Amino acid sequence: MCGIIGILGKHEVSPQILDGLKRLEYRGYDSAGIATINSGKLDLRRAVGKLINLSDIMVHAPLPGRSGIGHTRWATHGGPSVANAHPHRAGRVAVVHNGIIENFRALRAELTSAGAEFGSETDTETIVQLASQYLEQGMTPVEAARSTLKRLEGAFAVAFLFEGEEDLIICARRGSPLCIGHGAGEMYLGSDAMALAEMTDRITYLEEGDWAVLSRGGALIFDAEDKQTNRPMTRINVENTRVDKSGHKHFMAKEMAEQPGVLQAAMGYYSGREHDSLELPQGLDFARADRLIMVACGTAFYACQVAKYWFEKYAGLPVELDIASEFRYREPVLGPANLALFVSQSGETADTLAALRHVKPHVAQVISVVNVPTSSIARESDIALPIHAGPEIGVASTKAFTAQLQVLAILALRAGLQRGTLSPKAFAERLFELRAVPGFVAQALDREEEIKRLSEVLSQARDVLFLGRGMMYPLALEGALKLKDISYIHAEAYAAGELKHGPIALIDKDLPVIVFAPHDGLFEKTVSNMQEVMARQGKVLLISDAKGLAEAGEVPFRLAMPTVPDFIAPIVYAVPAQLIAYHTALHRGTDVDQPRNLAKSVTVE
Ligand code: AGP
Prior knowledge:
Strand order of the largest sheet: 3-2-4-1-10-9-11-15
Helix content: 25-40%
Bound molecules: 2-deoxy-2-amino glucitol-6-phosphate
Shape: globular
Largest sheet: 8 strands, antiparallel
Structural class: alpha/beta
Radius of gyration: 25 Å
Number of helices: 19
Distance between the termini: 10 Å
Number of strands: 25
């Protein structure tokens, strides 16, 4: 998950490339670099760490030129270092790359025995060494790039820049996203349209296996069989790509605060003209499905885990859940009456995309719930349902999670209606409750000051345990992930009833235990698990509603949530999970928006 960008401009490109990389930094920030052609000469600057370090270098060592490529890195092969930073250069060619070259060791051995001298530990350097070797054999840049691409196995979005070629960038897409931007006498390329939004709203998305020859006059696009082809140019809504903090200290804070509006928008988008009706894409058919397979990663997977309860309870539809990176390797049994549903904020997560491609030939329909309607997962689904959360820049997913839940709940209700397991009356009641979510989420956000105080205790912890039952168990998992994501505190989540089967050995006076327990049908059981913890001096924080807190008796720490219907509780209780992680991280001084070792979109397997 790196970000790449390229510009054939009419002006000096370095400032625009830096701006584009800033918009791509959410994809990785271990190092960054830019290469340009100036008066035919190829030159580059690279820096370890965040983009600001590269900017610093370029103030003192400017990089002139009106043709250039840039890169922001999440390290896969070879740690963060200048030597491993992209662009990589060999002879007269420079390359930036997002993905993994799976046959790089064999290529490296072949190139080394042919005399190539490698300066990095990366898989990417094999690309540029191959291209350089082909140039030295007398190939043209286009021939050298094409021949190089033929030798590569694995996933890549790659761009080549050649010394002496002021009006040429060659790029290719296989397994990692890449789009081309059309300017007035300028051409661009980027890992996503957001990177190019300051320069153009006219975007062409390359398809799998495509490669393209860019000049200021336009792009020649070739498919995987090297046949020249055309891909549609679309106009994106650049307004949606605004990436500022709107006065908040962090993107994560902004995105948490946006949730009432986002959830209102998602509800509105899928509401029909009548108050108790929904408007969903044609062809969405749950009636004949015998099983729903749900696959995702991370936070998106926990959204699926919640949705499993909804689909089974309200639609009587058996759900099979899988973490994307495990799914296809267990050789899942698939059938023609299965529905497959993929959830992904970025729509580019390699594991999830690979799982989608694995099932597509074998199931009735592939549905996706995504935040980027132009993403690979969306474009390869039979039906893609956008969550309309707007750009989510903070690496820790917040508004996307609650919006995913909102849309999944809508789908579960539609499934119940289609399958006849939900009466129109019950459907209308659940839909009424769903419409109330934005208001309840706003009330939950109002607990921020109290959560800020409670988080101070947490920030001193070495480990934290999250507990929940029923739909609160995936919420506990999400709370633990959020805390790990941004505060670097080790956290685990358990189904509360599972505690006595081992993990209760962890309990002592130094272990904070956070319990999600609205006053629902499982409340008593959860509270008795909580009391087992308190009997062993565990430091319990109970998150419940007024009735639950009143009945729970003496608890060291308490947080009151609004009283909400069971159906929508998981969406509302996501807010304290997010705020606890956020304020604990603030107390610890970690980088909330760009936590160490992480990236927003994991586009490598
Ligand atoms: C969650 O806070 C993380 N950002 C991560 O777990 C993320 O949810 C996961 O990588 C899936 O990403 P996706 O939704 O873009 O597919």
